[in-house]
Amino acid sequence: MSKFQLNEQLSLGVCYYPEQWPQHLWADDMRRMKEMDISVIRIAEFAWSVFEPLEGQFSFELFDNVLQLAKENDLKVIIGTPTATPPAWLTEKYPQVLNATIEGHLLQHGLRRHTNYTSTTYHQFCSIITTKLVEHYHTHPNVIGWQIDNEFNCEIGEFYSESDHIAFRQWVESRYVTLETLNEAWGTTFWSQTYSSWDQVYLPRLVPGGRQPNPHLALDEKRFISDSVLAFARIQADIIAELAPHHFITTNGLFGHLNSHQLTNELLDFFSYDSYPQFSTIFQDPNEENPLADRSWSQTLSAVRSISSKFCIMEQQAGPGGWVNKMDMPSPRPGQLRLWSYQSIAHGANMVVYFRWRTATFGQEIYWHGLNDYSNKPNRRLAEAAKVGHELQFISDVLAPTTYEANVAIMRDYNNEWDGEYDVWHGPYGWTSGKEWYKALTRKHIPTDIVYMEESTTLEKLQKYQLIIYPHPAIMSAATASLLEQYVELGGEIIFGCRTGYKDTRGHCYMLPFPGVASKLTGIELEEYTVVKGTRSAPSIKFIGNDNTMATQHFNEIIEPISDNVEILATYEDDYYAGKPALTRHAFGKGQAWYYGSVFSEQVANEILSLLPDVHSPASWLHLPTEVELAVRGNDSRRIYILLNYSEQPMSIQIDESKLNLLTNEAMVGKVELQGYDVLLLVEEK
Ligand code: GAL
What we know:
Layout: E1 11-15, H1 26-35, E2 40-43, H2 48-51, H3 61-72, E3 76-80, H4 88-93, H5 120-137, E4 143-147, H6 162-176, H7 179-185, H8 215-243, E5 248-250, H9 260-267, E6 272-275, H10 279-283, H11 297-307, E7 311-317, H12 336-346, E8 349-355, H13 380-399, E9 403-404, E10 408-412, H14 414-422, H15 427-443, E11 448-452, H16 459-462, E12 467-470, H17 478-489, E13 493-496, H18 519-522, E14 524-531, E15 540-543, E16 549-551, E17 555-561, E18 566-572, E19 581-588, E20 591-596, H19 602-610, E21 622-623, E22 628-634, E23 638-645, E24 651-661, E25 666-674, E26 679-685
Parallel strand pairs: 1-2, 1-8, 2-3, 3-4, 4-5, 6-7, 7-8, 10-11, 10-12, 12-13, 13-20
Antiparallel strand pairs: 9-22, 14-17, 15-16, 15-18, 18-19, 19-20, 21-24, 22-23, 23-26, 24-25, 24-26
Helix pairs in contact: 5-8, 6-7, 8-14, 12-13, 15-19
Residues 150-151, 154, 274, 315, 355, 365, 368 line the site of beta-D-galactopyranose.
């Protein structure tokens, strides 16, 4: 049996929970799935108590019947290991498997994800259930792969059970080897925190003021959690790889305190993400100017693409979302379900699995709607998904082998994400600036990647991009600074914002003028800096070339050029630093390094882009309104331009060169109207 290759086709799937429905519905469900050109079902990820109703007693009958029907209906199957939902008998008898709050209170049975990753008892039970499942199903002809667990670190991403404290202590000891190194790394001479024995080391506990851990410990805590998830997942990945080498291994969800890149590189065939663009209505900051709403999911999908260039959407929103006690999301408007499916595909999803087939009639998620309503009557969401199913059949061969193409990248890294959760002097800025840059780029139709800076990042990887925006890398190692120098020296363009380069990977501040290790590359030092807060409003800056003025936000740094090759592009307008540089550009080798002493807004990003005329849309023959996103997927033979209209209104677009419409096989040229929420795929042969 050969392994299913994500690369080879576009597939549509659906999450199916037969254990929640009477058996007489199953055959009809699958018949209707097939009619919609759904070819994959994902099952069983919460069904531990079905498979092992009592300790050591296993039952496969229910899912054997389901798989038999899947075979008859020619549906491929992804099986989830059910380790996010241990049965009541397990947690009752072995409470050491439970997670605890920082106060030490155990989190109990009744929801999901209430276990820790470090209990050896839990490891054993997870290992047994995984082995039993893989042994039982590895020869089934319809099974193509496995999803390990479900959404690591969803629901909760902190772990304070006894076994976590013990495992952390061991982790710390193996990382630092001597107490002296540990004390130095965590700066424990400050406030007499010095450890004289490993037994004194714990994960954060309550201190005066509540949660105020030593910041260096807080950063190591995130690294430890990530390593714990990896060690936990590895147990299952190893079992699957050994018993079912012909099946793929994946896991779903993108959550905090987890290096998903490392997880994927070490354990998975590809990464899967759960895409619910309607969360944008819940997370929307009412004060945000010009928000991207559901289109902002493209930025997250780009982060997913940085993990796996081709990926699976294991859960694609299929209706309004809501739990009984939290979250109430509007229904996707007519056209949005299809639009969001193509949004995923445009960004690299070759498999899109809707969540879920039918809306649950009981449990926490009775308002998290699937394609079918409770009644099973035909509805517009089913019709839209069926349309996607039929279309994918038609375009699969052409689109599947292509990958997303971008010349611009927004850079992130785990050290700063994790350190910034605790450090309010840079943490919140990374998200804001990344989002504002993404808005500017997507509205100018410039496809953009998200790239993670890691120890393993190579120059070659960076050189794919003509422009990299690395908004606020407070933590920057000397090695990273030197890699970025090489990138710019050879012709790359890099843009930094405030709070760059002043911390090492332990989170200590360098005894250097800011921006620390980025000073050489940027050709600047900072005279001084301040948070902008209180009764004063943030000063404006003025661009020197055109006198355009715009507001700064959150933080101001006063820049002092230290190289002759630095050009001052904007100065502060007000306050005691009026007239001082706020934005500079340093000619460095064949490239340029930009430095902005504040947090980026879309307006500032746009102004900077206007100074970078070579950074533009890859399709000069295509004229699009800002409401329409342009994504490009290509390979050696062709390029597909994917147009996504996020507006409910029809949008007028102009196509100067005739191109084939991939969905209709018709040539398109001239003025074309793209209906509200509609998509258009234009093919360019090379
Ligand atoms: C995901 C989860 C699903 C379901 C869905 C809707 O996070 O993986 O099992 O809970 O959200 O809430």
